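Q: Start with the shorter request: fold the first protein.
A: Done. Sequence, then structure:
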Amino acid sequence: MNMTLLSEKKYDVLCKKVAHETFDPWCEKTEIIFKTHKIQDKNDLMLAIAFAYSWIPTVPKWRGELDWARCKEQLKRLQSGNSTAIAELFRLIVPSVNNSIIGTSKALHFVYPELIPIVDSNVVKAWRSIFNEDERNINKNAGVARFPLDFGKGGSRQKVERHIDLYLQYRQNLIDWSSRLNGVSTRDIERKLFLYGRIIES
């Protein structure tokens, strides 16, 4: 990947675009509370999902029985520092709750904020504006997640799998970008993306 794409200059431009934007007070007040949550059992996971959907203008719909035994196994792997468990957690949780990568990212972010960044429609909109400027040149930003317009909006199992892979690429992009910025976390970048996406006209 051309790492100049994830540059300090590009982050500075992003910061200037949202310099006067603010977050919803509910999100600001609850984020600190939600991030104290731990997942020990299935009910704890359900609570994390409920927290996440207080940030989303929709009601979570239980689509199928969650394989808690496998989830617990992957959560233990993640707690021990094995980030490869993230992909499996998404594949287990997403189909059970709204078929939503967005909801799953928020629920798991509250429990593992340093490991699992949030993605939502505003973040995707901002990301596309910054990195997907030329849709005709697929190799222009090779290595940077190329979100489609309908990212995270459900669909077939194959489509959801592709979108999970895109999320994982986006996650790695944020980690790489953060590593090039002094004292800037992946959450700092994601928050700026959210604010920028919110002011972009659809």
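Q: Next, the second protein, separately.
A: Sequence, then structure:
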Amino acid sequence: MKFSHLLIFGAGVALGAGAVCAVQSKTGKKFAVAVVGKGLELKERLAYMADRMKESVEDIVAEARYVNEHGTSGGGAES
């Protein structure tokens, strides 16, 4: 079991050293910048989606509170 841990550690060190060398090259740096840029774009999209979902949930909660207090539906779809 200790051998597998040592093997995983060695692979991590080799991968890290390879990543450092790749990022230091001009092509590797351009690639890293592009990947990080896409990651930031994805983060912004997810944050926007989370905000929209939060607003929707807040609207549903507010409508449910209104229904509980007044006993009538606030104009949602009725069956």
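Q: Describe the second briefly.
A: The mean pLDDT is 87. DSSP finds two helices and no strands in the chain.
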